[in-house]
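Glucose-6-phosphate 1-epimerase structure dump, as promised
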Amino acid sequence: MANVIQDGDGSPRIILSEPIGSTVEVLLYGAQVVSWKNEKREEMLFTTNKALWKPGKPVRGGISICFPQFSNLGSMEQPGFVRNRMWSLDSSPSPLPPANNQSTVDLMLKSTDEDLKSWPHRFELRMRISLSAGKLTVIPRVRNTDSKAFSFTFALCNYLSVSDISEVRVEGLETLDYFDNLLQRERYTEQADAITFDGRFSWFCKRKLLELKTFVSAKIILNFKLFRALFSMLSIS
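structure tokens r here:
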């Protein structure tokens, strides 16, 4: 089930819920997921206690979207501008595989003439956010509505609530390429089957940018920072 509410701070948001009791909250501003609670009402995402919504500024935490540029991999503002735009409900979403027993919302952002001043390409960016028992899935889709091709970088910055970082493992990165920030972003290939974190965690965060290929036919750049981790195929389970 999905409901749209207007909070006291003026931020419209969507509440997703499913039968066993887990919930997700998504701001229309930036299409940003700001809360994901499991059936025990435990918060799975981290947001700072100062995470108040203000026009023109995204909430720090949750899951934020970086597009059409991630980090400083380009000449425009970091990290892109779509997280500072008001999105709308997608009334005619593109067909996707059936979402049985899921609570789903489809959001859309279309480029404007004002956006063309920052990035001279017309586009539509769609996000499908689905909640099911023990699983949150986020699927981005980019459509080129311009008359010429363009390239972009994209990231989902995921702030996960972690009680003990030494218990965290990131799997599925073996054989993927990354850029080493301490060596002028020279390209290397990850060899470990799982990445764990100890006292060198902050060193690792600053050092590695991982480059993946995904189904949106673009380069996905995933940045590791405190309370951030990867979605497996853009989903958490």
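The helical segments are 113-116, 201-207.
lmk if u need the other ones
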